[in-house]
User: Fold this.
Amino acid sequence: MKEQSVIAKLAALETASLKELQALWRNLYGTEPPSFYRPLLKLKLAHRIQELAHGGLTKETQQRLKQAMENAGAKPRLYGDRLAAGTMLVREWRGVEHRVRVLDDGFDYMGRRYKSLSAIARAITGTNWNGWMFFGLRSRRMAA
Assistant:
């Protein structure tokens, strides 16, 4: 019976409005929702629903995963001043999906290299944007 409830909650994410997803975030996490784009918000909520129903990773498993990443030379995606190379940023703007790949020394957008996310946001919108805010990596509250 419990598994059916989890499946129903996961299925409901697909048709939920943004306001409903944000309300669910507040309920499940007890915090204001981050400014993730909708697909990432749904993914994080799906993970949390399953984590609450089935339990999260043990501390031992978390440590083993961290060690395996370090041994493989993998870099986790970082928030702050830097994103790990290989991270894919996706933003929908006026009905068009835009994908940006993080490089070691900049960003790749539509086969062209850029030094900053702000330059890409300007290329997409035609106006000046803070690139981190445009791609939902930083909110206005965090920037202030």
User: Anything to note?
Assistant: Helices lie at 2-15, 18-29, 38-54, 59-72, 117-125, 131-134, 140-143.
